[in-house]
Predict the 3D structure of the following.
Amino acid sequence: MFVSEFLGRKLDRRFRMLDSNRNGVIDERDFTLAAAGLASEFGHAPGSPRAQRLLNTHLATWKELLRAADENGDGKVSPEEFKRAFTTTILVSQEAYERAYLPMLLEAIMMADADGDGELTAGEFQRLNTVYMHASAEDSADVFTRLDRDSSGTLTVQEISDAIREYYFSEDPAAPGNWLLGPPPVEAEVAPQRQAQAEESIIPEWHSPR
Ligand SMILES: [Ca+2]
Ligand SMILES: [Ca+2]
Ligand SMILES: [Ca+2]
Protein backbone atom coordinates (compact mmCIF):
# COMPACT_ATOMS: atom_id res chain seq x y z
CA MET A 1 0.00 0.00 0.00
CA PHE A 2 1.00 3.61 -0.47
CA VAL A 3 2.44 5.02 2.75
CA SER A 4 2.13 8.76 3.10
CA GLU A 5 4.50 10.79 5.23
CA PHE A 6 1.54 11.60 7.45
CA LEU A 7 0.73 7.94 8.08
CA GLY A 8 4.42 7.29 8.68
CA ARG A 9 4.47 9.94 11.41
CA LYS A 10 1.30 8.62 12.97
CA LEU A 11 2.79 5.14 13.08
CA ASP A 12 5.97 6.54 14.64
CA ARG A 13 3.86 8.18 17.33
CA ARG A 14 1.85 5.04 17.95
CA PHE A 15 5.05 3.02 18.21
CA ARG A 16 6.41 5.31 20.91
CA MET A 17 3.15 5.20 22.84
CA LEU A 18 3.01 1.42 22.57
CA ASP A 19 6.55 1.14 23.91
CA SER A 20 5.31 0.94 27.50
CA ASN A 21 8.74 0.41 29.06
CA ARG A 22 10.31 2.99 26.75
CA ASN A 23 13.30 0.98 25.67
CA GLY A 24 12.96 1.81 21.98
CA VAL A 25 11.67 -1.58 20.86
CA ILE A 26 8.33 -3.31 21.22
CA ASP A 27 8.10 -6.78 22.63
CA GLU A 28 5.67 -8.89 24.63
CA ARG A 29 6.48 -7.00 27.82
CA ASP A 30 5.06 -3.77 26.40
CA PHE A 31 1.75 -5.50 25.75
CA THR A 32 1.57 -7.17 29.16
CA LEU A 33 2.47 -3.86 30.84
CA ALA A 34 -0.23 -2.00 28.91
CA ALA A 35 -2.86 -4.57 29.80
CA ALA A 36 -1.81 -4.74 33.45
CA GLY A 37 -1.70 -0.95 33.77
CA LEU A 38 -5.19 -0.50 32.40
CA ALA A 39 -6.65 -3.34 34.48
CA SER A 40 -5.11 -1.86 37.60
CA GLU A 41 -6.38 1.63 36.77
CA PHE A 42 -9.94 0.31 36.53
CA GLY A 43 -9.72 -1.87 39.62
CA HIS A 44 -9.34 -5.33 38.12
CA ALA A 45 -6.92 -7.49 40.07
CA PRO A 46 -4.23 -9.44 38.21
CA GLY A 47 -5.66 -12.81 37.21
CA SER A 48 -9.29 -11.70 37.58
CA PRO A 49 -11.48 -12.67 34.61
CA ARG A 50 -11.58 -9.16 33.11
CA ALA A 51 -7.86 -8.59 33.59
CA GLN A 52 -7.13 -11.99 32.10
CA ARG A 53 -9.34 -11.37 29.07
CA LEU A 54 -7.65 -8.02 28.47
CA LEU A 55 -4.25 -9.68 28.75
CA ASN A 56 -5.27 -12.46 26.35
CA THR A 57 -6.36 -10.02 23.64
CA HIS A 58 -3.08 -8.15 24.09
CA LEU A 59 -1.02 -11.31 23.76
CA ALA A 60 -2.99 -12.30 20.66
CA THR A 61 -2.30 -8.92 19.06
CA TRP A 62 1.33 -9.16 20.04
CA LYS A 63 1.59 -12.54 18.31
CA GLU A 64 -0.01 -11.10 15.16
CA LEU A 65 2.39 -8.19 15.23
CA LEU A 66 5.38 -10.40 15.85
CA ARG A 67 4.43 -12.68 12.98
CA ALA A 68 3.96 -9.74 10.63
CA ALA A 69 6.87 -7.64 11.82
CA ASP A 70 9.78 -9.50 13.26
CA GLU A 71 11.95 -9.83 10.20
CA ASN A 72 15.18 -10.67 11.97
CA GLY A 73 13.55 -13.07 14.44
CA ASP A 74 14.88 -11.49 17.63
CA GLY A 75 11.46 -11.42 19.32
CA LYS A 76 11.43 -7.63 19.28
CA VAL A 77 9.90 -5.12 16.91
CA SER A 78 11.90 -2.06 15.90
CA PRO A 79 10.24 1.16 14.72
CA GLU A 80 11.06 0.23 11.12
CA GLU A 81 9.68 -3.29 11.46
CA PHE A 82 6.57 -1.87 13.14
CA LYS A 83 5.87 0.51 10.29
CA ARG A 84 6.45 -2.15 7.68
CA ALA A 85 4.16 -4.61 9.47
CA PHE A 86 1.33 -2.10 9.64
CA THR A 87 1.66 -1.00 6.06
CA THR A 88 2.22 -4.44 4.52
CA THR A 89 -0.10 -6.51 6.70
CA ILE A 90 -2.26 -4.93 9.39
CA LEU A 91 -3.54 -1.94 7.42
CA VAL A 92 -3.80 -3.50 3.97
CA SER A 93 -7.54 -3.95 4.40
CA GLN A 94 -10.31 -3.17 6.85
CA GLU A 95 -10.64 -6.91 7.41
CA ALA A 96 -6.99 -7.30 8.35
CA TYR A 97 -7.19 -4.32 10.69
CA GLU A 98 -10.37 -5.60 12.32
CA ARG A 99 -8.94 -9.06 12.79
CA ALA A 100 -5.38 -8.32 13.87
CA TYR A 101 -5.56 -5.07 15.78
CA LEU A 102 -9.00 -3.73 16.67
CA PRO A 103 -10.13 -6.46 19.14
CA MET A 104 -7.41 -5.52 21.62
CA LEU A 105 -8.43 -1.88 21.55
CA LEU A 106 -12.14 -2.66 21.86
CA GLU A 107 -11.41 -4.75 24.93
CA ALA A 108 -9.47 -1.83 26.41
CA ILE A 109 -12.25 0.65 25.65
CA MET A 110 -14.84 -1.63 27.21
CA MET A 111 -12.78 -1.90 30.34
CA ALA A 112 -12.67 1.89 30.60
CA ASP A 113 -16.47 1.90 30.38
CA ALA A 114 -16.77 1.09 34.05
CA ASP A 115 -20.58 0.91 34.22
CA GLY A 116 -20.83 -1.02 30.95
CA ASP A 117 -23.39 1.24 29.29
CA GLY A 118 -21.35 1.55 26.09
CA GLU A 119 -20.26 5.13 26.77
CA LEU A 120 -17.20 6.71 28.35
CA THR A 121 -17.30 9.86 30.40
CA ALA A 122 -14.62 12.49 29.88
CA GLY A 123 -12.88 11.23 33.00
CA GLU A 124 -12.93 7.61 31.87
CA PHE A 125 -11.63 8.62 28.46
CA GLN A 126 -8.82 10.63 29.98
CA ARG A 127 -7.74 7.66 32.09
CA LEU A 128 -7.83 5.39 29.04
CA ASN A 129 -5.95 7.85 26.89
CA THR A 130 -3.24 8.65 29.40
CA VAL A 131 -2.75 5.42 31.37
CA TYR A 132 -3.22 3.08 28.45
CA MET A 133 -2.42 5.04 25.28
CA HIS A 134 0.23 7.15 27.04
CA ALA A 135 -1.24 10.31 25.52
CA SER A 136 -0.85 13.70 27.16
CA ALA A 137 -3.40 14.57 29.85
CA GLU A 138 -3.20 18.20 28.69
CA ASP A 139 -4.63 17.30 25.29
CA SER A 140 -7.26 14.97 26.63
CA ALA A 141 -10.16 17.43 26.97
CA ASP A 142 -9.57 18.76 23.46
CA VAL A 143 -9.35 15.25 22.05
CA PHE A 144 -12.54 14.28 23.87
CA THR A 145 -14.45 17.21 22.39
CA ARG A 146 -13.30 16.38 18.87
CA LEU A 147 -14.10 12.70 19.16
CA ASP A 148 -17.55 13.40 20.63
CA ARG A 149 -19.02 13.96 17.18
CA ASP A 150 -22.61 14.23 18.32
CA SER A 151 -21.66 16.52 21.23
CA SER A 152 -23.50 14.28 23.65
CA GLY A 153 -20.91 14.82 26.38
CA THR A 154 -19.91 11.16 26.33
CA LEU A 155 -17.96 8.99 23.90
CA THR A 156 -19.59 5.81 22.70
CA VAL A 157 -17.47 2.77 22.02
CA GLN A 158 -18.46 3.36 18.40
CA GLU A 159 -17.21 6.97 18.44
CA ILE A 160 -13.87 5.84 19.80
CA SER A 161 -13.48 2.93 17.41
CA ASP A 162 -14.41 5.24 14.52
CA ALA A 163 -11.65 7.57 15.68
CA ILE A 164 -9.11 4.76 15.87
CA ARG A 165 -10.01 3.66 12.36
CA GLU A 166 -9.64 7.23 11.12
CA TYR A 167 -6.25 7.51 12.80
CA TYR A 168 -4.94 4.72 10.61
CA PHE A 169 -6.95 5.29 7.43
CA SER A 170 -7.55 9.04 7.10
CA GLU A 171 -5.10 11.42 5.49
CA ASP A 172 -7.00 14.51 6.68
CA PRO A 173 -5.23 16.20 9.63
CA ALA A 174 -8.56 17.84 10.52
CA ALA A 175 -10.35 14.50 10.85
CA PRO A 176 -11.23 13.97 14.52
CA GLY A 177 -9.61 10.55 14.62
CA ASN A 178 -6.25 12.01 13.71
CA TRP A 179 -6.40 13.83 17.06
CA LEU A 180 -6.75 10.57 18.96
CA LEU A 181 -3.26 10.74 20.45
CA GLY A 182 -3.04 14.54 20.53
CA PRO A 183 -2.56 17.16 17.81
CA PRO A 184 -1.79 15.35 14.54
CA PRO A 185 1.93 14.92 13.84
CA VAL A 186 2.02 17.01 10.67
CA GLU A 187 5.73 17.52 11.09
CA ALA A 188 8.40 15.01 12.02
CA GLU A 189 8.48 14.70 15.81
CA VAL A 190 11.98 13.49 16.45
CA ALA A 191 14.58 16.10 15.62
CA PRO A 192 18.06 14.79 14.65
CA GLN A 193 19.75 16.36 17.66
CA ARG A 194 17.29 14.68 19.97
CA GLN A 195 18.16 11.31 18.50
CA ALA A 196 21.81 12.07 19.16
CA GLN A 197 20.99 12.78 22.81
CA ALA A 198 19.20 9.49 23.30
CA GLU A 199 22.27 7.79 24.71
CA GLU A 200 22.39 10.31 27.53
CA SER A 201 18.88 9.19 28.44
CA ILE A 202 17.41 12.62 27.99
CA ILE A 203 13.69 12.18 28.39
CA PRO A 204 12.11 13.15 25.06
CA GLU A 205 9.09 15.40 25.20
CA TRP A 206 6.70 12.65 24.18
CA HIS A 207 7.40 11.10 27.55
CA SER A 208 4.56 13.12 28.93
CA PRO A 209 3.82 12.97 32.64
CA ARG A 210 1.67 10.01 33.53
CA1 LIG B 1 9.54 -1.71 24.85
CA1 LIG C 1 -20.21 4.17 30.71
CA1 LIG D 1 -20.95 11.25 21.89
